[in-house]
């Protein structure tokens, strides 16, 4: 026989046990969903940062090469910024040249006779110029890590300017000293591969 006081029904001990049991079953599932959503959000944020910095670096290189490069030489950064041009590359039809060690120098249209280049430093892409920045300037922040940076030029015809191919991999620097692109958690990993071809102008 149920007893009522002041028109209110009190929970029985059995009902309380059932409620607690349901909560114990439901809460772990809810927490796992919550942490999965948070982890995915972290990955999305990091991937967007990688894309933003990768797009910026590629945009700068594409714009400068297309608008300012007149000729290509296999000169180092020091030689290039000192306007010491050695080893002309892709100057005749049917030739190509590739470098990933910083010996890829562009001769500028203006100021005439000046040089600039792009190269990979420890973990970044740097730009150096005889006119604007003889000391290399990084195009990406320390939060990123760049690998496999390569510049290649190809010339198919005498009256056609060289085509420069830029490629590199960029990832979020996870702080892992052994492998900065590898995280301790799956959501820490965010990396992209970039490659594009730029046709130099001949005027």
Strand order of the largest sheet: 2-1-4-5-6-7
Report strand %. 25-35%
Gap from first CA to last CA: 100 Å
Could you tell me the radius of gyration in angstroms? 29 Å
> What is the H/E order?
HEHEEEEEEEEE
Residue-averaged pLDDT: 85
Helix-strand makeup class: alpha+beta
Q: Which regions have little confidence, pLDDT < 50, spanning 5+ residues? A: none
* Overall tally of structural domains: 1
Q: Characterize the largest beta sheet: strand count, sense, and whether it forms a barrel.
A: 6 strands, antiparallel
List keywords for this structure.
203 residues, alpha+beta, six-stranded antiparallel beta sheet, four-stranded antiparallel beta sheet, 2 helices
Structural features, described:
The protein is α+β, with helices and mostly antiparallel strands and 203 residues long. The chain contains two helices and ten strands. It has one domain. Strand 8 and strand 9 form a beta hairpin. The chain starts with 12 loop residues before the first helix and ends with a strand.
Tell me briefly what this model is.
This protein is α+β, with helices and mostly antiparallel strands and 203 residues long. The chain is built from two helices and ten strands; from the N terminus they run αβαβββββββββ. The radius of gyration is 29 Å and the shape is rod-shaped.
């Amino acid at each position: 026989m149920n007893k009522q006081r002041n028109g209110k029904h009190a929970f029985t001990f059995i009902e309380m046990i059932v409620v607690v049991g349901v909560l114990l079953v439901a809460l772990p599932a809810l927490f796992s969903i919550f942490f999965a959503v948070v982890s995915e959000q972290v990955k999305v944020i990091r991937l967007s940062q990688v894309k933003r910095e990768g797009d910026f670096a590629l945009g700068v290189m594409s714009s400068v090469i297309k608008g300012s490069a007149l000729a290509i030489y296999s000169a180092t950064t020091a030689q290039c910024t000192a306007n010491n041009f050695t080893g002309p590359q892709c100057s005749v039809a049917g030739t190509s040249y590739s470098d990933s060690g910083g010996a890829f120098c562009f001769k500028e249209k203006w100021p005439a006779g000046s040089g600039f280049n792009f190269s990979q430093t420890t973990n970044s892409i740097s730009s150096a110029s005889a006119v604007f920045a003889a000391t290399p300037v990084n195009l990406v922040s320390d939060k990123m890590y760049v690998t496999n940076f390569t510049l290649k030029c190809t010339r198919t015809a005498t009256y056609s300017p060289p085509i420069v191919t830029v490629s590199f991999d960029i990832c979020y620097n996870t702080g892992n000293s052994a492998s900065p692109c590898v995280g301790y958690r799956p959501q820490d990993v965010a990396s992209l591969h970039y490659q594009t071809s730029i046709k130099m102008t001949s005027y």
